[in-house]
Each structure stands twice: as C-alpha cells, then as structure tokens.
Write a structure and sequence with these properties.
Elements (H helix, E strand, L loop, with lengths): L2 H7 L6 E4 L5 H11 L3 E6 L13 E2 L2 E2 H5 L4 E5 L5 H12 L3 E4 L5 H5 L3 H7 L4 E6 L14 H8 L19 H24 L3 E6 H8 L1 H10 L16 E5 L4 E5 L3 H10 L3 H5 L6 H6 L1 H12 L4 H10 L4 E3 L3 H6 L1 H6 L2 E2 L12 E2 L21 H7 L4 H7 L10 H4 L3
Parallel strand pairs: 1-2, 1-6, 2-5, 6-7, 7-8
Antiparallel strand pairs: 3-4, 9-10, 10-11, 12-13
Helix pairs in contact: 2-8, 7-9, 8-9, 18-19
C-alpha cells in the first residue's frame, strides 16, 4: 500500500462516529467513515438490532442487507427507552465527533435524544439526521423507505418498458446515494468545525437525492413540459442506446452521437440506415425511435452475441455483454478489479466477502466484519468511564421495551 493509500484509509483515525441509524443510508455513511479510519460505534436495539439483520437472504444467520453496510463497526446494544440506556448513550455522545440517526417522526423527541439534547452534552458534535422527506412540517410526519420515495418522486413512473407497468429500480439507489451525500455533508461540517470548533445539525433527505439522481429528466420536463416516458433499457436522450436481443442472448450498445451511430450502421451492414434523412441527427433519431428500433432489433437477432460484440468493437462502437450478476462477478474484468475482500474474522466463522470501497483499491480499509448485536457493549461502555456495575447490566442482551421498529426508521 502506497503512502497516499495508507493516509486515505487512516484519514479519520481518532474520530468517533455513533451510528444510531437503521436500514441503508445512515449505516452506509457511517461505514464509509469507518473505512476511512473512524471508530464507528453502532448503537442498536439489544433484542434484535438493526431491522436489516432479519432480512433475507442471510449468511450465517445475518441478513446480507445488513452485512453490506455495517463492516468496520463495533456494536453496542442499548434500550434507549430506559433511563440507563439513554444515559449511556449520552455518555457516548460526549466522546463522539459525529452522530448519524434515522429515527422516525417524533421518536428522538420522545426518547429525549433529539439534537438539542445531544448538543447540550457535546456542543462540538456533528449531528446528521437521515430521513425520507426531511425535517419540515410536512416531511417530518412521513415515514418512508426507498421504494416509497421512488414512487413519490416519479422515479417509478419513468422506469420500465413502455408497454408494461412502472418498475422499481432494483438496487436501493436512493438510500445508497443519500448515504454518500451524508458523508459529503459530514466531511464539510468537520472541515468547518476545524475553523470554528462548533458542531452543527445536518438534514439529509432521500427525496432530495431522488430528484438529484433524475437531474436531467427534471430539467427535461421543465424545458418541455412533458415528463419522461418509460423507454425500457433505452436512454431518453439518445438512441440507439440500450439492450438488444441477439440470436443467443443479449448485448448492450451505447451510441450517443452521430459519429458512433454511423460506425454502428457500417458494422451492422446497414449503410442505407446511416444515410436515411430520418436518422441523421440525435434529435431526429429520438423522434423516429420506434421505426429505427424495429430495424435494429431485427438485424441484431441475426447473429450471436459474441459475433456482434467482436464486429462492433472492431468498428469502435461501445458495446458489451448483458450479464446476470453471477456472470458479472465472474468476468475476468471484475476479477481484475479485486472488488471482493474477505475481512479478518478473528475467532468467528469466516465472514462474507465485502465489496471494497471504490476509493480504496487495496481493500486494506476493510479491517473488521460486521458485528453481532451488542458484541462490543462492555468494551465500548467501559471506554467512556461508566461504572462497572452499570456496564455489566447494560451488556446483558435482553428483550427491550423499545418503539415498534416500523416507527423508528424512515430510510
């Protein structure tokens, strides 16, 4: 590992982050900070932990959704509805630099751990609230998850094939992108605190992320007054730019300008299409999309995927296979990137491989696997100086009288 790479994965060494969030966005933000060297303490319900632990599929009894965003963390199980659990949390807040939470409407206030209370205990703390629709009078009353935000924002309405129903974007892209925005906001707040010594409250909402992900569709609608239709795998801005069925499978072509379209037509042995005045510019091709697609679909079905990829690549046309996920992970190009890293597991069973942080090509930032519920309760609470008898009682995993999990998180 080079000196630059080593400094990256230890960038936030000495920084303490409290992860009070559940599901994906908040935990991802905390994990990224952990990958960059921060000491991340995940505070969870002592009976069942983060909601995603119970989702399927599972690895060694743990939901893979949970395992995907919770490495490089230590877990503390606290009943935040109890006086002892709340005081233990506030003691942790006094030692923290960053707190990330995603409580549902009114939950933090009912538990007595809203931003104002945390700020009293630690004026320098940076408090990041992750919600679905924000902290405004209307937004804070709405719990929500990625799929609900996809529906509300219009993302579902523009995804899918024109002759089919709306389709969900399968990856939780709004959650995950919101987590990255949260990291950027936290980093900016840390830089500001370096100058002022003051903490701050950050409001990050999934809805804001959704609209930003659809930035060019939003501007397109504002420019034309027409919402983006569903185009299946095709781009709304250019064509041909999507997936095509071949004689034995599928491939993906991306020709976003006139030069590439001409190359495609020559490789497909369709010079008359390149010369057709209906298709001589991007704007014209988009206007005549259906007629052009009929011609191209028929041509692509005449040869195999391998044949077409070889022909198109030789002609300088951007083309590639349409993999399923197993094929994608096993492709030599993916293997070359060394994306999967098995974290050190200690005495535990071998942990599931983790996808390394894209900015850490070595994978050295993956220092510990996702924790078990409350695995580090005694260790962490002892560090903040709580009485040993209190630490012993809090370290016992038990059923806790906490708010219903459906009400505690709105990512």
């Amino acid at each position: 590992m080079s000196q630059a790479e080593e400094s990256l994965v230890s960038l936030y060494e000495g920084l303490r982050v409290l992860d009070l969030a559940s599901n994906l966005a908040g935990p991802l933000a905390a994990m990224v900070l952990g990958d960059l060297g921060a000491d991340v303490v995940k505070v969870e319900r002592p009976d069942c932990g983060d909601d995603t632990r119970d989702l399927v599929p599972r690895w060694d009894g743990q939901g893979t959704v949970f395992l995907s965003v919770n490495r490089n963390k230590r877990s503390v199980g606290l009943d935040l509805a109890s006086d002892q659990g709340r005081e233990a949390l506030l003691a942790l807040v006094e030692t923290a630099d960053v707190v990330i939470e995603s409580f549902g409407p009114g939950v933090a206030e009912r538990l007595g751990i809203a931003y104002e209370r945390l700020h009293e205990r630690n004026p320098a703390v940076i408090h990041c609230s992750v919600s679905a629709f924000g902290q405004g009078p209307a937004g804070r009353r709405r719990p929500g998850y990625d799929a609900l935000v996809q529906g509300f924002s219009g993302m579902l309405s523009i995804t899918g094939h024109p002759d089919g129903p709306p389709a969900r974007v399968a990856p939780s892209s709004i959650d995950l992108a919101t987590g990255l925005w949260a990291v950027i906001a936290i980093q900016a707040a840390l830089a500001r605190r370096g100058d002022t010594g003051e903490g701050t409250h950050i409001d990050v909402a999934l809805l804001d992320t959704a609209f930003n992900l659809m930035g060019h569709q939003v501007l397109g609608m504002l420019a034309t007054g027409v919402p983006t239709p569903r185009y299946g795998t095709e781009s709304p801005s250019s064509t041909p730019n999507g997936a095509y069925e071949t004689a034995d499978g599928w491939l993906v072509v991306a020709t976003a300008n006139d030069r590439l379209f001409d190359r495609l037509c020559q490789a497909l042995e369709l010079p008359e299409v390149a010369a057709d005045p209906r298709y001589t510019s991007t704007e014209k091709r988009v206007a005549a999309r259906e007629e052009l697609q009929t011609i191209l679909r028929a041509r692509f079905r005449q040869r195999t995927t391998e044949d077409w990829i070889e022909r198109l690549r030789s002609a300088g046309v951007p083309v590639g296979p349409l993999h399923d996920l197993r094929q994608a992970l096993e492709d030599p190009l993916t293997v070359e990137r060394r994306l999967l890293v098995v974290p050190p597991g200690g005495d535990r069973a071998e942990p599931i491989p983790q996808l390394r942080t894209p900015i850490d090509p070595t994978g050295m930032s993956i220092r510990r696997p996702p924790p078990a519920v409350g695995e580090h309760t005694r260790e962490v609470l002892s560090e903040v100086g709580l009485p040993e008898e209190l630490v012993r009682r809090l370290a016992v995993i038990r059923k806790a009288a906490l708010p219903d999990p459906d009400e505690t998180d709105r990512e």
